[in-house]
Amino acid sequence: MPSDQDRPDLERHLRDVVTRYARRMDWGNHGDEAIEAKIEVTELSVVATKGVVRVTCAGHGRLSGGHGGRIARSRFSMGGRPREKAALERQLITMLGRGLVTRLADMARSAR
Length: 112
Hints:
2 helices; alpha+beta; about 110 residues; about 40% helix
């Protein structure tokens, strides 16, 4: 999460999403070599105006070692009712995690 926000619930949700989808991905044949990635949420903002809340979530991920060294970036923004703010945040965190894991797996496969 961004350094100015302490959201252990969303951090735990992102960790669960990334772990679940990382197991499903084809990371390519790298033998016994472990593939490590770092995923960071760079923005999580909520703006409320006249009965509408807009949640924006952005982040990036990077493979460590000699697996491409490129950065995968993603950004999502959605609006909804103010009472659905928590659900929107979780949905955007899910979309961000899935998108970054998918792109990182693609980068790892192409780096072989």
